[in-house]
Amino acid sequence: MINNTSKYSKIIKAEAKRLGFLSCGISKAEFLEAEAPRLETWLNKNMNGEMRYMENHFDKRLDPTLLVEGSKSVVSLLLNYFPSETQTDDSYKLSKYAYGNDYHHVIKNKLKSLLYFIQEEIGEVGGRAFVDSAPVLDKAWAAKSGLGWIGKHSNLLTQQVGSFYFIAELIIDLELEYDYATTDHCGTCTKCIDACPTEAITEPYVVDGSKCISYFTIELKENIPTEFKGQFNDWMFGCDICQDVCPWNRFSKPHKEPLFNPHPELLDMSKKDWEEITEDTFKKVFQKSAVKRTKFSGLERNIEFLKP
What we know:
CATH topology of the largest domain: NADH Oxidase
Structural class: alpha+beta
Cofactor: cob(II)alamin; [4Fe-4S] cluster
Shape: globular
Radius of gyration: 20 Å
Strand order of the largest sheet: 1-2-7-4
Subunit structure: Monomer.
Binding site for cob(II)alamin: 61, 132, 156, 167, 214, 239-240
Strand content: 5-15%
Binding site for [4Fe-4S] cluster 1: 186, 189, 192, 246
GO biological process, one term: tRNA queuosine(34) biosynthetic process
């Protein structure tokens, strides 16, 4: 049995690499004991703002065996999205992860291929693929399986590649060889905390989601509170400030996923272009993008809020 778990783990990791994933780590599917009080406190302080869905499925969020019956292993995967080029300086800004095609679709297809491969190579293995859309604590699982540590900005960090990557999981009913968590390498650095214009990082490792620029520009459906006027540093969809200032991100290397390449018009659009954007242009540029989530009206609201 021991031989098989080791062998299976190796072939799964090799196939993940072949599919273009940055790295793959495996943990035992079990209750996340350390995360439970942390999540409870965060929710009790209303740091989820209008993201009420964070309150749902509390038990499933902490225990994958309740989410996928008979599950034994959580296979965590990272996929790089760091772009080779960024927007022009005179522009309202989009988070880098939203430059190309919607990552949910891109990653889901890779995960399905990986699960199919496991079933072909190993036999009858049941499981489900997750990409940021179900009650799974992605960062906690990735950290538990040794893919990085959770930084003071609450993003997963890796020494060799920084933090510009997506996290996804396969939760499967197959016993595997498990990896170990890595150590924290944030040290005394507080660059992310100091740089956040809305002071959303209330203390190291704690982000008040209801104060985050990403929350205001994507999740919040009502008007953005006026007290935050002038604090968004031109971010109109998402925000990368805490990642951009992180010293570990100087090791970020451009991704090799063609589907994450931006629409040809996107990088050259100026503030004036954004202010004059029509619904037709929006549909054309963001046809397959995650930006569709905020809708044309949401993007318009954000741009209006950014104007002096």
